[in-house]
Amino acid sequence: xxxxxxxxxxxxxxxxxxxxxxxxxxxxxxxxxxxxxxxxxxxxxxxxxxxxxxxxxxxxxxxxxxxxxxxxxxxxxxxxxxxxxxxxxxxxxxxxxxxxxxxxxxxxxxxxxxxxxxxxxxxxxxxxxxxxxxxxxxxxxxxxxxxxxxxxxxxxxxxxxxxxxxxxxxxxxxxxxxxxxxxxxxxxxxxxxxxxxxxxxxxxxxxxxxxxxxxxxxxxxxxxxxxxxxxxxxxxxxxxxxxxxxxxxxxxxxxxxxxxxxxxxxxxxxxxxxxxxxxxxxxxxxxxxxxxxxxxxxxxxxxxxxxxxxxxxxxxxxxxxxxxxxxxxxxxxxxxxxxxxxxxxxxxxxxxxxxxxxxxxxxxxxxxxxxxxxxxxxxxxxxxxxxxxxxxxxxxxxxxxxxxxxxxxxxxxxxxxxxxxxxxxxxxxxxxxxxxxxxxxxxxxxxxxxxxxxxxxxxxxxxxxxxxxxxxxxxxxxxxxxxxxxxxxxxxxxxxxxxxxxxxxxxxxxxxxxxxxxxxxxxxxxxxxxxxxxxxxxxxxxxxxxxxxxxxxxxxxxxxxxxxxxxxxxxxxxxxxxxxxxxxxxxxxxxxxxxxxxxxxxxxxxxxxxxxxxxxxxxxxxxxxxxxxxxxxxxxxxxxxxxxxxxxxxxxxxxxxxxxxxxxxxxxxxxxxxxxxxxxxxxxxxxxxxxxxxxxxxxxxxxxxxxxxxxxxxxxxxxxxxxxxxxxxxxxxxxxxxxxxxxxxxxxxxxxxxxxxxxxxxxxxxxxxxxxxxxxxxxxxxxxxxxxxxxxxxxxxxxxxxxxxxxxxxxxxxxxxxxxxxxxxxxxxxxxxxxxxxxxxxxxxxxxxxxxxxxxxxxxxxxxxxxxxxxxxxxxxxxxxxxxxxxxxxxxxxxxxxxxxxxxxxxxxxxxxxxxxxxxxxxxxxxxxxxxxxxxxxxxxxxxxxxxxxxxxxxxxxxxxxxxxxxxxxxxxxxxxxxxxxxxxxxxxxxxxxxxxxxxxxxxxxxxxxxxxxxxxxxxxxxxxxxxxxxxxxxxxxxxxxxxxxxxxxxxxxxxxxxxxxxxxxxxxxxxxxxxxxxxxxxxxxxxxxxxxxxxxxxxxxxxxxxxxxxxxxxxxxxxxxxxxxxxxxxxxxxxxxxxxxxxxxxxxxxxxxxxxxxxxxxxxxxxxxxxxxxxxxxxxxxxxxxxxxxxxxxxxxxxxxxxxxxxxxxxxxxxxxxxxxxxxxxxxxxxxxxxxxxxxxxxxxxxxxxxxxxxxxxxxxxxxxxxxxxxxx
Length: 1274
Known about the structure:
This protein is α+β, with helices and mostly antiparallel strands.
């Protein structure tokens, strides 16, 4: 079955070697040696030993280098070992030499299914697992249009066909053909046998097939014996099964269940034969015989049948009364004994004595029931009434002592126990009462003396006294557990089980303690060991009952039902019957839930109706149905069931039912209603256990409210909710854990660490606390300690504790130990296949590895599991899988945005002044889950004001108007031509793609400007451990002025001729790295650039930036940061001027600045905001430059005009504010203002924008705001 499960689970698909046929190029027939090697390889391959299979195949190729079956199987192994190149090489060889051979087709199918059709086969398997058999088989048929494949693919195909409508006959024949074609490979035969066993009509034949497979020399008994056992466990009474039982037991002689079934079938055969051969068998004799043997139900049945024919038989009536009395039906027994007194006068004394005994034990039974229900006064009255007729009855005295013990009247209890022991020195109840009393009062010496004395006086009754000592040890364990001392309790219970191995409830206590210690499998083994003890029928029934309760507690309801089913009807007590009914209701409700999940609401309601019929008017059983509906995502219907019952029984208090309703409210997380309902109950009117349950509901409500407040970032409210639980002595452990989570979210890591370390110190086995410590240590960047503690948690976690191990998987994922996370998660998925949280986490691992499509597949599968399980939504209204899907879908952020920006920079009109208007239109489209393509176009209008057309304007060639030699050479030139408006407009373009690790774009500065050109860039993102970095290569425009951005035409072309200059582009390579520490972060950046333009002096730049970020406030909805940044910049040329040949951009030869920023951003329900201010201090130096640096002739003609050098110290500040408002989940509007001020630089920027998201955005408003920005700002 292993190979079948692998195929169903989505691993690499296997295909067995196909036999060769006649093709265009005849296949090489395997000779004897190669056939033997191929058979050996096939066998090892079927058992997943690819190393041994490969060795055999490589030997075969030495004999026959191009044998197709060998090449095909080698290619398949290469696929399984993730060597696609080698597999494709083998396929190319096969296609070249044997294009039509089945071996070629088999390998081609495997490669295709594991590559191009991987998602299709996954979809087919998902449909198969979700029960959509017909749709699944349709997918398989589409995958294999040329007919069914061979090998495991064929097995998988036919299994899907077998489950489809009317598909079984063809599937059965197909699997039979596969078995015949490859007799050395038993996988097809095994699968066929399994499918036959699942069908009653072919179960016997299927089991016989398994037996024949097991007889083969190389049979895999580990796979076959469980399948064989499955067939035998479903066998009917047909005697043809007997040989199969015998053959199985010859291989598995220690299988007690199968041996018991075999013995039962043999016994039935023998009994049937005896009955057929014994015509003198009579109902009365059978009844008396059954009574003597303790078979009370058989006795009752036979005697009732005989009573019909002999209604006046006093002996028969009295015997039937004995049956009733032993069954505990004392009232029925008393009626029959009274009739026997009248009908059998010769034995009237015997029947009167039995009538008196029945009356006594009837009163005792009623007293025990009253005592168990806590009605001690009523119990005391009933026992005293019974003792009136038998004052020295030791059992009555001992029970009266037990009642006094329960009522804390220790002196009365001790006196009554001693009276009972005087009458009967070895009375069990009295002895146990004395032992319990001594144990409670810690009278160790007297307890030891009592037991020693009893063992000396009654050496033949040592077992009884061992049981009594075991009971005392069990009481000690109960007290230790109540005080939180699990170690001593475990030792006491282990010793008690050794002393009294057949005591079901001591074993149950030990198993429950192991479960509490998160070792449920050991608890299961404790109960299973109990079933192997020699026991009387009643004790065995109690052991089965206790085992069923334990299995039910650990969520193995099927196992619990199986245990209860083994209890003979004669031993079924009302408690056992009630549990059987409870489990039957749960099973029926499960079928209803599954029908609802499958969309069959009519069937679902029918099943719920059946469950309610079984529940009757019992509030606890009705609560089971209600709980099922709440768990199925139908809380209103479930709550209504209990609400209606309470309304119908409002005439008297119903505290148990009220608590069941409160539990339902808690499960449905109707917290407001739950708080009101609990407040309406008066705890003083409740019993002790009821008060404990009421308080637990209050505590869980407080914990949930605290956790919800924590999730919303309201830490003050969260701590306030925890205060009542934390103020207890000792503090509530759950509240401490939640407080640790609050401290963690508040980034109070030292406080969170202290809580976790204290919890571990108190209980070193507390792996939840250890994993919390791992999280804190990792956040504190103590990676070595975090990994050490995580490794310890992994080593010490119980293999059966899914939730601790799943928490460990989350830590492994967060710490990027992905291989270990995947391995552990996959093991959990195998061990706990129906736990949707495990499947969700597998998706989160894939998402963390940026395998987004794979993650989506896991999340979808988990959601289907949640629907079947009836998972309820969390605080955010989504289930775990829905939240994961929403997180993944949030990566697909397709939207369009538009804005209007105004940029203003004061300066000399027509020269350094620069005002720009931009209308950016931006759109991005999600490409899968990996990234987005984006496009943007901006309409840009630039204006630098009116340029004075005279020689005083240092712009272009205008200074020549004041050069005497120029004026002399050009006598018609005027000294002043007025002014001219300097404007430009155009349309900028950009197209690009961005994902987690790259951003690339290509674009164009505004077409329509005097000078425009192609721009673009590529930025790569990555990390090395905790260091993040990016590398950027780009061409971007210099936008500081009209000349640098748009370029400019020479003024007065009639004087100076046509020409233009400017349009400076910066070609740069930049490296940026950063590292966040616990309370601060650092960053550094270095860049080299070349700046060029049209008719502009080439320039180069070297810059560096480094700084420290310091978070001051870190909250869920608000951040406040400061820091310090040091910046260095150096240009080779000083080109900040605007005459011809200069670039018009600030380019000091040395510039150093120190900036102190303060940044604040956050969000409310619909708003997000951002505010940043900074103060900077700078020192700069600029060298002198010629007016016309690119043209020596012009420079000479100007009389060698030169700009002087300069520099100095400066102080500046800046302020940026932006905000956006989410009108709804699609539309956003926002705005931004920005001011910068320094000695010679004072720009202003204003922006308004709007954005439309095509998919409604869920969750919190993002922060900080994300305004659209013009292309020039990238």
